[in-house]
Model the fold of this input.
Amino acid sequence: MNVVRHVLGRVGFYVVSSLFAAIFALPLLWLVVAPFSTKANLSVSLPEQWSLSNFARVFANSFAVRALFQNSVIQAVGTMVLVTLLATLAAYALSRAPIRGRDTISYGLVLFSSIVTGTAAMVPIFLLIFRMGLIDTHLGVILVFTGGLLPAAVFIMRDFVDSIPRSYEESALVSGASHWGMFRDIALPIVRPGMMVVGVWTFVNVWGGFLVPFILLRSPGKMPASVAIYSFYTEGGTPIITLTTAYALLYTLPVLALYLFVNWKYGFRFFGGIKS
Amino acid sequence: MAKVTFRSITKQFGSFTAVDDVSFEIEDGEFVCLLGPSGCGKTTTLRMIAGLEQPTEGRILIGDSDVTDAKPKERDIGMVFQDYALFPHMTIAENIAYPLKVRSVNKHDRHERAAEVAKSLQIDQLLERRPGQISGGQQQRASVARAVVHKPRVYLFDEPLSNLDAKLRLEARSYLKHLQRELGVTSVYVTHDQAEAMAMADRVAVMNHGKIVQFGPPLEVYRRPGTTFVANFLGSPPMNLLPVTYSNGAFEAADFSLDAAPFGKELRGVANGTQLTLGIRPEHLRLSTDADHWVLPGAVYAVEPLGPESLVTLRVADALVTARLFSDEPPTQLDGAGFGFDPANIHLFAADGERLTRG
Done:
């Protein structure tokens, strides 16, 4: 009896979890399959004939290609480098320097971060960037994204730095290293997994960000892919499924590649320090 | 190789005084242990020598140079940390060679020197491993190797053995002492383990509440503790301390009265009715016989056979008094027991804990 109940229980568990898995897997499956069909619609079905003609038409759209392979890359990589660099330095200072109320600073910053890139702040941000003369520049987009993502990035990085025993740094100092040498040889390599997490997280956020570039950029030649995908809509405003999916698939590949690379090279971890 | 001098060093953290007007001189090549309970300021003292803390007041000298305001890298020291602090992203070889790397020794020479030091510490087969892949005892040796590789003038040890298990700790104690003797480098060693301090040090500085309460060769400190704190801190089990009242030429307590005649010199100027503390080491007590004139009577509290010796604890007055009895067999006949002793082994302390001295 018990065995039967056990088996039934397991079967039930797998049925239910397969259902849930399917709910999440179907859109992904669709994304992989639809671009290769010339007659794609909103249902998931294997194409009768596999075809690359959708991709050929996507690559013929020079505006979209440039958006994806140039503008999105400039904005995402630029923000990633800036945020990772600044977050690491700030987190290190907040963790190590005897600053009064540094916990309050960290938590306060995280609260602010959700405001800066939020929709409500768009008008003031637009005005600010306008006054700075940075409307329709990559730099303007990068700076706004950096401002929005930096506080949370500092918060994540601080957790990493906090979890590293200070004796590593002290031991480097008494070994004869200068402060900068210690930071370069010891602190930086040890927090590198944290920098990778923050870097990928920033990249993904900017890569998928729509509102900020949509509002701050004017010329088509500077739009990122998240905006350019609208060039695959009909004039009536409905998406051309064959082309949008093909473009969307191309659009996800860099993120996947980045994740796989970082995971292979460093391994993803959301905690710092290394037990020795 | 150099002397280490503290001139009236005070270190405050906010309103807390960690080290309180401490002065001492550690001779060239000497092995000094800073011994005390946690929070006594011993680690802060060590960190001030290393340059990891700045003293609030006073001067620190290494050799003839004033290093009070010098950075750690300008002090030419080697330090072993309690958690070893081996860099997790470097191999053991890179770890050991790191002090040479920052001194711009070329790669070939520094790895040769690292291998040489590793060999002398018997960890040369681990050079290509990472710290996470070797045992605690091996990590400890690797961190010692890193501290000595660049031939510093002073070694600093911050409780380097406290993360090891008992057996490894004894082994490491011997090899560290041997190493220090062989290299003859001035060493400052922080520990809360009195046995470690006794075994290794040329001189022990016993610290309490930010002050050095006694500074001398271990056996001298052990034999003539200057205060009840030192008496209680050194020795395992520690010295027995019994509160008594001095009256009419005798030490009086609830259950006993002892003739104070042999202590005439110490008791000169001590008034009748003064509270005193009698101290006696466990190894100076024996089970009393009828021939004993000096006896502490008491009821058996516990008997602990340890092999070569047994610990017998009696309840005497309101205190517990422990004796170490050196015999292969634990004692059996303990009814109506008491401890006999030789009055020469008694230590006398005033009510404030200071030792009463002759004259």
Summary: Confidence is low (pLDDT under 50) at residues 271-276 of chain A. Chain A touches chain B through 20 residues (CB under 8 Å). Residues 19 and 260 of chain A are 27 Å apart (CA to CA). Chain A is about 70% helix and 0% strand.
